[in-house]
TrEMBL record:
It is found in: Membrane. The lineage of its organism: Bacteria, Bacillati, Bacillota, Clostridia, Lachnospirales. GO terms for biological process: transmembrane transport. Keywords: Membrane, Transmembrane, Transmembrane helix. The chain crosses the membrane at residues 12-32, 38-56, 68-91, 171-196, 224-245, 251-271, 278-296, 316-338. This is Sporulation integral membrane protein YtvI. Belongs to the autoinducer-2 exporter (AI-2E) (TC 2.A.86) family. It comes from Candidatus Lachnoclostridium stercoripullorum. Its main location: membrane. The keyword 4Fe-4S does not apply. It holds the Pfam family AI-2E_transport. PANTHER family: TRANSMEMBRANE PROTEIN (PTHR21716), TRANSPORT PROTEIN YTVI-RELATED (PTHR21716:SF68). One of its GO terms (cellular component) is membrane. It comes from the Bacteria.
Length: 358
């Protein structure tokens, strides 16, 4: 009887723990999904202040300079570097995309259309008895393809235009981000002390440990993705150079940037590109691009879980699950947030701070 009572108590404790952590996970999901975009300028400002805080403390300690002056100087330098990089790369990328979008119809008539006509002539010559049916089918395909090219060109141009038109809203968020980052940086220690005072003394240590672990894991994940992006860029550059594709370095960089995004990936660029080359009759280039895509995909899928898992201390399967679930539920933020949360939970469980099934 006593044994049954103990088993019942253990089962009840397990169920309570599962419900408790499910509720916490639900709250975190709601916060990340709804409130993070709403308060993004203030969160970015606070994160930037926390990143600069160790550097500011070190400079103040070594040079005996007033903290407010060091904080303002560090922020100015930081924003100068960020805005310079965004202005340089952003303007070049947008102008390149818009220029290529405008040229899409010309590419169609100069390169794709002659290839399609050559393929149509071969098909019609091999099937003379069904020439009329095949001709109508090919004409329908040609019309749809031409319409699709025109629509794609218009969509890309309108997207770039919408980004430009949406710049005022982005500028407002940017202003709030800059202002909040200055306030947070100047009064970082006061803000952190105020937040910690909202917790019990025994909980404050756990909060500090969680935040510290989150910083370390996030930094490691960012380094991993920078490494993966570099590897992808080198693979693309080598492949484009071997295939004798013009502007190999800029093209490799653009595709590597697309590859780091969760929804797109290199397949968004390389698969249509390779198929288009096959249609145009350039078999060697088309096959080469598709083979390059397969190599990059295999290397990326093999390295990503292992490298991130080794850096954050998670099993590759758990890491892959966190990345996939985060991308599906939240998007880009989830790719970073879910492995970070899983690592923190694992560390706290290993330290005995929390228990799931006991």
């Amino acid at each position: 009887m006593k044994m049954n009572f103990n088993k019942t108590g253990m089962r009840r404790a397990v169920i309570i723990n599962i419900v408790y952590f499910a509720m916490i996970a639900g709250i975190i999901y709601i916060l990340l999904r709804n409130f993070v975009p709403m308060f993004a300028p203030f969160l970015i400002g606070f994160v930037l202040a926390s990143v600069l805080a160790p550097l500011i403390r070190r400079i103040c300690a070594e040079w005996k300079v007033k903290r407010s002056l060091v904080a303002i100087a560090c922020l100015i330098v930081c924003y100068f570097v960020i805005f310079s990089a965004i202005g340089f790369f952003g303007s070049h990328v947008l102008s390149f995309i818009q220029d290529q979008a405008v040229r899409l119809p010309r590419y169609y008539y100069e390169f794709l259309y002659p290839g399609l006509m050559a393929i149509s002539d071969k098909i019609l010559a091999s099937s003379a008895e069904s020439s009329q049916t095949i001709a109508r089918l090919l004409e329908s395909i040609e019309t749809r393809l031409q319409s699709g090219i025109m629509d794609l060109s218009g969509v890309i141009v309108s997207m770039v235009a919408s980004w430009i038109m949406g710049f005022p809203g982005f500028l407002i968020q940017l202003i709030f981000t800059v202002i909040s980052s200055f306030f947070f940086t100047l009064d970082y220690e006061t803000v952190v002390a105020f937040i910690l005072r909202q917790f019990q003394p025994e909980t404050q240590a756990m909060v500090v440990e969680v935040v510290s672990s989150a910083k370390i894991v996030t930094w490691k994940i960012l380094r991993v993705y920078a490494l993966l992006m570099t590897i992808t860029f080198l693979e693309l550059y080598a492949g484009f150079t071997i295939l004798r594709i013009p502007m190999a370095a800029p093209m490799a960089f653009l595709v590597a940037v697309v590859d780091i995004l969760p929804v797109l990936g290199t397949g968004t660029v390389l698969i249509p590109w390779g198929l288009l080359m096959l249609i145009l009759g350039d078999t060697s280039l088309g096959v080469g691009i598709l083979v390059l895509y397969l190599i990059i995909t295999v290397v990326r899928q093999s390295l990503e879980p292992k490298i991130i898992g080794s850096q954050v201390g998670l099993h590759p399967i758990i890491t892959l699950l966190c990345i996939f679930a985060g991308a599906q539920l939240i998007g880009v933020v989830g790719i970073f947030a879910f492995p970070v949360m899983a690592t923190i939970i694992k560390k706290m469980n290993d330290d005995g701070t929390i228990h799931f099934f006991r």
